[in-house]
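Anyone able to model this chain together with S-adenosylmethionine?
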Amino acid sequence: MKDLFGKALLDYQNGNYTEDIITSTNISDEDDLPLPYLFRGFSEMPKLEKKALKLAKGTILDVGCGAGSHSLYLQEKGFQVKAIDISKGAIEVTKLRGVLQAEVKDILDEKETFDTILLLMNGTGIFQELVEVSKYLSHLKNLLKPNGQILIDSSDIKYMYEDEDGGVWIDMNSTYHGELDYFLSYKDDEEDPMKWLYLDFEKLQLACETVGLKCELVVEGEHFDYLARLIPAFQPSSR
Ligand SMILES: C[S@@+](CC[C@H](N)C(=O)[O-])C[C@H]1O[C@@H](n2cnc3c(N)ncnc32)[C@H](O)[C@@H]1O
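re: yes, here you go
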């Protein structure tokens, strides 16, 4: 990984903002990912993210923290927050912005336990593909303290396969429609292609059941997006 995402965040943080990140997928054309959006304050956040921050409690792990916007907000509210990301640049920026505990780390390497685990801005993207979902979910479940919760957002991107007449052209014999190849470029340099997973609520719920998590729909957004709250299906007895 060239960490172009981290480079872009660092440029913005250091006052060298000249252009945005460009993203595209195997089913969509190029689109701008505005750097200021990654540094958003609470008032600029979508309603799903605001709701997740309101529900956060206890010790918090912000997975894939990016520029650390959610961690910063929660830390300022007095919570103990740990921010992790696989991007070195992202963690440098998160620290520069004042987040006290921020580490370059893959979620699968995390071992501490938390009361709240946040995965926001299409949190299921980190799972990469459908066959990996149970592995990530059971690992996340193991990182929960008693009565802990996972707050995660995603969308059903079926609408991206619709043509102008409203017809849907999903090939039923191919892989799950939310599994995308994701391409990112910044300042004429291209990142290695990545896999990025959008998961509809029913599929997430089904995957949760297989690993002993209960999946509740917290709130739906305006465009097939949703916030879910996952808790262990069986809490250990307090006796
Ligand atoms: C779409 S960005 C979201 C950033 C941030 N949560 C926000 O809302 O602004 C996804 C982030 O997840 C990070 N990431 C991807 N895979 C990861 C993994 N396995 N463990 C930790 N972070 C990961 C990426 O480097 C990226 O910063």
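The pocket of S-adenosylmethionine is lined by residues 5, 38, 63-66, 69, 84-87, 90, 106-107, 120-121, 126 (CB under 6 Å).
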